[in-house]
Amino acid sequence: MEAVLETDQLGKRYGRQWALRDCTLRLPAGRIAALVGPNGAGKSTLLHLAVGLSRPDAGVVRVLGEPPHHNPAVLAQVGFVAQDTPLYRDFTATELITMGGRLNRRWDATLARTRLADLGIPPGKPVGKLSGGQRAQVALALALAKRPRLLLLDEPVASLDPLARREFLQTLMGSVADTGTSVLLSSHLLADVERVCDHLIVLHAAQVRLGGAVDDLVTAHRRLVGPRHDGAPIPGVAEIVRGSHTDRQSTLLVRTDGPVTDPLWTEHDVALEDVILAYLVDGETQTNHAAWGVPA
Amino acid sequence: MIEFVLDGRSKVNTYMQLVQQVKQALRVGLLAPGDQLPKVREVAQALAINPNTVLKAYRELEIEGLAEGRPGVGTFVTRTLAGASLPNQAELRDDLVAWLHRAQAAGLTPEDITALVETTMRASLPVEGPARQSASAG
């Protein structure tokens, strides 16, 4: 299948600090993908590289088959909504749509007007005076007016209240159903991710920890409960992602590469959220009782 | 036309919830052969879910022979699950409503009623095997 976004050992450095390193991933067309990870994991850096706002320090990024940096032909087909939906706050929605028409070769102003009319957004009010939810809808309508083949959204709903968040995702899902646009959105809200996305990329400490189709990832992971594990390999288990142990019992979240048939282990399904969290938690929590002056 | 709802706390997959709701509607006669299922776009937007999830549910219904997609038009019900019992359901429902009122008058809470119904069903109805599926196939 065609890839809308492809990276190979992609890296970006700010000073001596790598914000993204050895990032290799492939996003097939037609997916709604989630980019998940803690603050500072490199999510915005990856999105900025994909939309050509910054240039890689290592490796390659290809969007719709081509490097996006200084590439107007590619960028004309990519929609981007940056974090906190920055818009010229003194402009009205109508003015922003007109401006978009001047700046873009492909521009469907009617589509944008229809969307905002459906949502009851006032056309003549400066967007700085709109509610956060309405401003996010204006930013989305502007990004969709390009009729993009790939839509990139950086934390699109993070600052919205639950109702505005639901309305934003409704508009987004309706548009995707209409156009078949591929979407990559970063989010902290795992419940939204589970509802909306069929592809997942987990970033942690500037690196890709997990990537793939949600259905595949969920079926490949299992929770095993059994006697305390001594580190011996378990047939059917490719990797122990996370384990917790009592003196006689171990609970392991594992990635499988076959059926786990050892009768010592009881197998349980895991939800997507459990899988994501298991990859975000570092192996062992570092305690610092001494620093707090409390007994361990 | 039916309207889908999602139980966010359910352990059941989103697409499976949609499949189950269509089957439920077919069982009680809310949907009949020839009826159109809601359009993919409408379901995706109303529930804020991935359109591919809706497509997956509709494909599952097609594989089970319950619906068929007509390109450019939509997805339509081809078979019912109500079987021969549908005409009897209204009368049975009336009996059940009368019984429920009696149970309530006798001081049973909804939880008591559910427990009574479930234990009695287990005790007096034979477990239904896969034989029932093949009887209605085709």
UniProtKB/TrEMBL annotation, chain A:
Listed Pfam families: ABC_tran
The keyword Nucleotide-binding is annotated on this UniProt entry: yes
InterPro entries linked to this entry: AAA+_ATPase, ABC_transporter-like_ATP-bd, ABC_Transporter_VariousFunc, P-loop_NTPase
Key words, A-Z: ATP-binding, Nucleotide-binding, Transport
Gene Ontology molecular function terms on file: ATP binding; ATP hydrolysis activity
Keyword Mitochondrion: no
SMART domains: AAA (SM00382)
The species this protein was found in: Micromonospora deserti
Sequence ranges assigned to domain ABC transporter in this UniProt record: 5-230
Lineage: Bacteria, Bacillati, Actinomycetota, Actinomycetes, Micromonosporales
Gene3D superfamilies tied to this protein: P-loop containing nucleotide triphosphate hydrolases (3.40.50.300)
Superkingdom of this protein's organism: Bacteria
Name the record gives this protein: ABC transporter ATP-binding protein
UniProtKB/TrEMBL annotation, chain B:
This protein's record includes keyword Cell division: no
Record-linked SMART domains: HTH_GNTR
CDD domains: WHTH_GntR
Residues annotated as domain HTH gntR-type: 12-80
PROSITE patterns registered for this protein in UniProt: HTH_GNTR
SUPFAM superfamilies according to UniProt: Winged helix' DNA-binding domain
Coiled-coil intervals: none
InterPro entries per UniProt: Tscrpt_reg_HTH_GntR, WH-like_DNA-bd_sf, WH_DNA-bd_sf
Alphabetized UniProt keyword annotations: DNA-binding, Transcription, Transcription regulation
Pfam families in the cross-refs: GntR
MF (Gene Ontology): DNA binding; DNA-binding transcription factor activity
Protein name: GntR family transcriptional regulator
Source species: Micromonospora deserti
Upper classification of the organism: Bacteria, Bacillati, Actinomycetota, Actinomycetes, Micromonosporales
